[in-house]
Amino acid sequence: MASIKTILRKTSLRNGKYPVLLRVTKDRKSKFFGTPFEANLNEWDSKLGRFNKKFTQQLKSNRLIGKFEDRALEVISELEMNQDFYTLNDFERKFRIQSNPEASNIFSFWQEQIDEFKAAGRMSNAAIYHHTKNSMQKFAKQKSLHFYEVTPTFLDKYEVYLRNKGGTGGGIGVKMRAIRAIFNVAIKRGIIDEKFYPFKHYKISKLKGKAIKKALNIEEVHNLQNLDLSDKPHLINSRNYFIFSFYTRGMNFADMMRLKWSNVSGDRIHYTRAKTKGNFIIKIMPPVKEILDYYRKTKRPYIFPILLRENLTPTQLNDRKRKTLSKFNKDLKELASLAGIDKPLTSYVARHSFANCLKQKGAGTDIISESLGHQDVKTTKVYLKELDTAILDEASELLLQGNI
What is the similarity comment for this entry (predicted)? Predict the structure, then answer.
């Protein structure tokens, strides 16, 4: 059981007075918390932890001290009821939030999360959180908003606001998931109580993107792979990136960008996926070996000519990724036209195509799930279901050709 007492600090201020502090002790360790008060030694009763009659406004000030102590006891009682074990740091976190309303400002905490992402080099997450925070501030029309004000009704109205701005289900879902993540971290860190969690009633699952995943079949992949680009050398790198991604289980562009020759060992590629931190060991198949041989003549540490030097800052890495990925997707449109592929071709289609082709060859969902690095097979089932929709649409077109 923690104990509390209001005391005078032993060291005086410049004016000769002593600050009044709230001391909280647990397991023979103490933490001290400031109050708005200070006093001379002769104005303080150290046994009672209160101002004596010599202090101006003694009664009013003592009542305020009592409120500080009551608040501290309330936090201690709540911690002891809800946690088998708690520390003074747990107490401090809860007590400061109750003492400082700004601590429950969702936008202040949100910015802390953005700064943490940037410090960790997770620039994509930082960008999503930044854009969502700005969007919600514009909707709320205020710079300060407390967690308890973000209710299911608030989120419903925010969703309507986003739709009126042209937002789609998928785009709105990204923002709502960012808000949900902010709440989850705030609850985990003891910033807010779980009773303020709005996502028990507001369901993000209803916000499903309408875009159907597009995928190539193996014949289309081969058409792209066998293109003669002797008169279009500006497309060689982009074709290589797509084919390499397809034959390395849909490797993400961000991971390809960071891939070094040190990741290649014998007939295997070893790497850690940036998004999930999962470790992958990929067997080097002939198309991949051909691409590796094409770039092996260079003396760069990175396999692909995307990152041209090492030790880039997270911001520089993100800028380089964005610029190169934009050119890659632009080149893929031209490559699709040359290969006779009448489908929107983007960098992520390589991953969709890998899953689609595995399924067409009869691979089980569990195998496809592990190959893609999904942490839950349910994710893979949703993934494949969306691909099935696109395949069924194409099959239905046979009715127009009389080929049934």
Answer: Belongs to the 'phage' integrase family.
